[in-house]
What does this fold into?
Amino acid sequence: MRNLPIAVIAGTALVTMSFSGCETPTGQGAGFGAATGAILGGIAGNNVRGAAIGAGAGALAGAVIGHLAAEDRRAGYVGYEYRVASPSRHYGYVVSPYRPFALVDVRGIRSGARVMDPVSERVFINP
It folds into this structure.
């Protein structure tokens, strides 16, 4: 019976964090990290204090990871310039300048237009 309040608190934290309005990668990372940390801290510490410590540690780790993800996403942009894709051997397809360097269908898209890579979700210029 003692674990029930901890499970309720951890579950409430998880639901609250999943419906939060954080739209940035840093905010989302902090939210999911806090929820996961609260659950794991509550289970490991078997008390509310453990859940609180886990939530704090998880939020910090999640925020750092979210910030790094945002920085990695911005690294593809230099000011207002975008990277240019490379032509491929297949007609109408180019190789994305972003990892994992996917083939992107650009048939019907004019040269010089901005194109969204569906895999990395980054914008590049059609050569």
About this structure: Residues 3-74 form one domain. The chain has a mean pLDDT of 75. The first strand starts at residue 86 and ends at 87.
